[in-house]
């Protein structure tokens, strides 16, 4: 089991577990440790649990194999993956009238934010969960001509208060990007960053 603190604010976790039902709990615990301060940790743990349970129960891994849980915390979203050894896929119409694991995943992540890639030789079930965006712009100091701000979850953006014009100016720190906004109102530029990041 390894946890790596990666560059640029991305936290990653990779853990490989025996494909035994009791190990799903271990996978949940590992993710809970990674996501201690992540706003929607409970949802993420539930999604990971359903995906891991599927690998243990339905995939070829269940015959003495393993499953691997990966999680990546990005600014504003979290990606979760569970990889297994593949095997036959018995998907069919469900008419038992009760929600199953993928229904839970879809309800949490949204219909376009989850999927299963791969084939009988190995599959990765994944989900992308939107996080709360932590962008905060402090009110400018009264006498500051230029105030740089910390955009907690958006390290690639800069913001400053242009005192002469009474405006916040925000821009993406990338020479190839022309994303830029200005407003007297901090919430407006925060909204812009959130929509474009
Ligand atoms: N990792 C997997 N490997 C093979 N088949 C899978 C896997 N995950 C899901 N499936 C198939 O998709 C179906 C739907 O999964 P899910 O919605 O979690 O329902 P449940 O696990 O309750 O059957 C499973 O019954 C199984 O046939
Ligand atoms: Mg299931």
Termini, distance in Å? 32 Å
Number of strands: 9
The figure for the number of domains is 2
Please give the order of strands in the largest beta sheet: 1-2-3-4-6-5
So what's the overall shape? elongated
Helix and strand run: EEHHEEHEEEEEH
Which cofactor or ligand species appear?
A: adenosine-5'-diphosphate, magnesium ion
Helix and strand topology:
Blueprint: E1 2-5, E2 11-18, H1 21-34, H2 41-58, E3 66-74, E4 77-84, H3 101-109, E5 114-119, E6 122-130, E7 157-162, E8 167-172, E9 180-183, H4 186-196
Antiparallel strand pairs: 1-2, 2-3, 3-4, 4-6, 5-6, 7-8, 8-9
Structure, explained:
The chain is an alpha+beta fold. It has two domains: 2-130, 2-Layer Sandwich (Heat Shock Protein 90), CATH 3.30.565.10; 134-197. The chain has four helices and nine strands. It has helices spanning 21-34, 41-58, 101-109, 186-196, and strands spanning 2-5, 11-18, 66-74, 77-84, 114-119, 122-130, 157-162, 167-172, 180-183. The strands form two sheets. The chain has a six-stranded antiparallel sheet with strand order 1-2-3-4-6-5. Strands 7-8-9 form a three-stranded antiparallel sheet, covered by helices on one side. Helix 1 packs antiparallel against helix 2 and helix 2 runs antiparallel to helix 3. The longest helix is centred in the N-terminal third of the chain and has 18 residues, at 41-58. The radius of gyration is 21 Å and the shape is elongated. The chain starts with a strand and ends with a helix. 28% of the residues are buried. Mean pLDDT is 82; it is low at 1-9 and 141-148. It binds adenosine-5'-diphosphate and magnesium ion. Residues 50, 54-55, 58-59, 84, 87, 89-91, 100-102, 123, 125 line the site of adenosine-5'-diphosphate (ADP).
């Amino acid at each position: 089991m390894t946890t790596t603190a990666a560059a640029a604010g991305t936290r990653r976790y990779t853990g490989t577990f025996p494909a035994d039902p009791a190990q799903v709990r271990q996978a949940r615990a590992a993710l809970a440790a990674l996501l201690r301060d992540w706003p929607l940790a409970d949802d993420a743990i539930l999604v990971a649990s359903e995906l891991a349970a599927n690998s243990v129960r339905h995939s070829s891994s269940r015959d003495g194999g393993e499953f691997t849980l990966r999680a990546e915390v990005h600014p504003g979203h979290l990606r979760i993956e569970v990889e297994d050894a593949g095997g036959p896929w018995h998907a069919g119409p469900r008419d038992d009238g009760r929600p199953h694991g993928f229904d839970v995943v879809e309800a949490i992540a949204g219909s376009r934010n989850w999927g299963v890639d791969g084939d009988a030789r190995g599959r990765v079930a994944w989900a992308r969960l939107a996080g709360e965006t932590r962008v905060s712009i402090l009110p400018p100091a009264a006498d500051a001509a230029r105030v740089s701000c910390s955009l907690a979850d958006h390290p690639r953006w800069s913001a400053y208060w242009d005192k002469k014009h009474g405006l916040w100016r925000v821009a993406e720190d990338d020479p190839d990007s022309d994303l830029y906004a200005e407003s007297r109102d901090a919430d407006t530029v925060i909204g812009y960053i959130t929509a474009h990041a």
